[in-house]
Amino acid sequence: MTLALKPRAGASEELEKLLAAQQDPASPHFHRWLTPDQFGARFGAAAEDVATAVDWLTRQGFHVDSVARSRAWIHFSGTAAQVSRAFRTEIHDYLVDEKVHHANATEIAIPRALERFTRGVVSLNDFHSRVAPRRAASTPQTGLSPQLSVPDGSHLLTPGDLWTIYNVSPLLNAGTAGQGVTIAVVGRTDIHLSDARQFRATFGLPAHDPIVVHNGPAPGNLGGDEELEGDIDVEWAGATAPQATVQLVVSASTTASDGVILSAEHVIDGNSADIISDSFLLCEEQAGPAYTQFLGGLWAQAAAQGIAVVVASGDSGAAGCDSRVNAAATHGRGVNAECATPYNICVGGTQFLDTSNPSAYWSSSNTAGTMSSALGYIPEGGWNESGKGTLDASGGGPSLAWSKPAWQVAPGVPADAARDTPDVALSAAAHDGYMTYTHNGAMMAVLGTSAATPSFGGMLALVQQAAGSRLGNANPILYQLGAAQYQNSGAAVFHDVTSGDNSVPGVDGFFTGPGYDLATGLGSLDAAALVNAWPKPLAASFQYSPPQPFATEPVHFIDQTPGSPSAWLWDFGDPASGSLNTASDQNPTHAFSGPGTFTVTLSTNVAGTSSTPAAIPITVVAAPAGCDHCPVVVPFHTPK
Predict the structure, then answer these.
(1) CB-based contact 348:429 (threshold 8 Å)
(2) φ/ψ (deg, to 5) at 132
(3) Average pLDDT for residues 17-35, to the nearest whole number?
(4) What is the pLDDT at residue 103?
(5) For residue 130, what are the β-bridge partners?
(6) Which CATH number fits domain 542-620: 2.60.40.10, 3.40.50.300, 3.10.410.10, 3.40.50.10490?
């Protein structure tokens, strides 16, 4: 179980300012990411409040399993009887859709001792997020040209096809393939590694096994759609970023906690990945306010640490609270709670408009090595294949829980005061399904935003490699680029989707249109254009003298940042020096308070854009006996 802790007084407002500054190239905080411990010190619950919560849980008989480094949550375990006594509720069994579930019968009561600094228990039930993938009706046939075609005219997607359609190939050819970037796929089942290996070997990708990370006891391979989801995410995250490190982070679900969120917590608390890909679905109405707020806090922490979180918008069109396998929606409009926070990128779906003249878009033969056959970009409409016994369509619509973030501004964004979803979209239709290996050697085509999402996560890995820094919540930059393009003042980064809608039987959805819309967001991506348009700050640089100073000896620092900076922020990593620990001069002098290793950080501003900070460890030694400063004349030291 998870006890969610409130941020300290005033921290929420301070965090919003920091997140905005981290995405503002003119700010000295641009891309200066926090560690989980720094996040906890600035925004988390006070240490004494955490201790009070731990003490109370222990006195109730619970076992405290862990406390987040961010001081944002506490994991604890216990029996149903202990839960009933401590939180004044009962745990009952419920038969839902022919399956027995466990849940609290009434709202829990938080004791007065904890009310001030806790949000409550995140979940006391096993109504976990839905797994989203679906096998496409079409499957590859033999004797056809190209090989991955089917009699109904569909052309099934290989990684090479996505490289061509979304212009990834120029980046890969130039050596930008995700090197040095880690993508964490969050899940709750093991997979057969042989499937990922066969996928890469079949479609011409370099051998690069995913790393399976178990958070707690391994759940084993759950099979079915759970296994399929893991395979899709791992294979397609690595398809668009072939040299990125892909982790499959696996946590077993419990009677009270979703393994997907436990996996996300593990990544964020360990700061162990640059990008998180989440393809699971839980609508806001079903999640409830406490769970929704916890998700927002979790993704906000990730953003502050520089982790980009990409989440699937869903596959039930505007009816996000209904399963896509239903013939008609019965719960009205809804959106995916895991996708709808202001702190993540929400990925919707498109479908290729290639049926009227397929030969204009697809070759009659496959490319050797990659088995691809796409000839170039293919025009897209909003994904909607509903009405055939399913609700298959791109998830999207306004959030009922979150207000519109300041960065969500672009032509077409509704004036609805709500956080609108999705943000971007990629192909998701069964008509051109994603080829995937699963279930220990079976090849099949799959559809849905659960395939589009890891593919987009891989594209962000290419952006990160080229930018030389983690991205955090990339939405402020994405919307700036979108606004510039749709106002005819910026590069053509997005393919504007202007046909189709995400209405499904039983629910009227939203039409696509020029600029942003509630079915496909800003549109699909031209990956090379996105990388080229992404802001890339200059790197700060400095030298210092003497190269190994004595304690209390003045050390001289010389800024060497190119481009004539106009502002400087020095942090000498020496908090014991008090107000002297920082400086805003171009070439300051600092005397360290004692011996030790101090990390000196310089941030500069060049023509309104903040540089990438330079952080250099400097070793300070104790002065010899009888010598206060022992000044010597030595050349300046330029760190390598």
Answers:
(1) no
(2) -105, -20
(3) 89
(4) 77
(5) 281
(6) 2.60.40.10
